[in-house]
Amino acid sequence: MVYIQRREVFSAAHRLYNDALSTEENERLFGKCSWNYGHGHNFEVWVTVKGQVNPETGFVMNLVDLKALMMKYVIEPLDHKHLNHDTTFMLGILPSTENLSIEIWKQLAEPVAGFGAQLHCVRVVETENNAVEYYGE
Ligand code: NI
């Protein structure tokens, strides 16, 4: 089994706010991340795919194809969007980095399988110091 990785980036705004809770409760939970209008990040998305090496190509999966899938299913829908308001696959979901990694997984798992490989990990880097990894469990 060999693991390959590809990184892409997007910029987006989000606001951590749970509509089911009061403004005070949201401020207690999310601090300044709960403020009106949101704030932005330059997100990195690292996708790890695993599989056997194809003897014909020497690849688990062509990284050109993985890049194309990431652009179509993740970067184009999210780049320069407000994750709370724009019509992306994040609409209606509290846009924490955790939830972002889960929803990105849902976007990519099937398309990656279509290339005979298996999605292994979605890593979303929110800041220099914060990152989340999701393994589909
Ligand atoms: Ni944030």
Structure characterization notes:
It is a single chain. With 137 residues, this protein is an alpha+beta fold. Helices cover 30% and strands 29% of the residues. It has a five-stranded mixed beta sheet with strand order 3-1-2-4-5. Helix 2 crosses helix 3. The two termini are 19 Å apart. It binds nickel (II) ion (NI). Nickel (II) ion (NI) binds next to strand 2.
Task: Give the helices and strands, then pairings.
Layout: E1 2-14, H1 23-30, E2 39-51, H2 63-78, E3 81-82, H3 97-113, E4 118-125, E5 131-134
Parallel strand pairs: 1-3
Antiparallel strand pairs: 1-2, 2-4, 4-5
Radius of gyration, CA atoms, in whole angstroms: 16 Å
The low-pLDDT segments are: none
Q: Report the span from N to C terminus.
A: 19 Å
What compounds are bound to the protein? nickel (II) ion
Give the strand order, joined by hyphens, for the main sheet. 3-1-2-4-5
Sheet with most strands: 5 strands, mixed
Mean pLDDT: 97
What class would the helix/strand composition place it in?
alpha+beta
Sheet-strand content, in percent, reads 25-35%
Helix content: 25-40%
How many runs of DSSP E, i.e. beta strands? 5
Overall geometry comes to elongated
What are the secondary-structure elements, in order, as H or E? EHEHEHEE
Compute the number of helices. Answer: 3
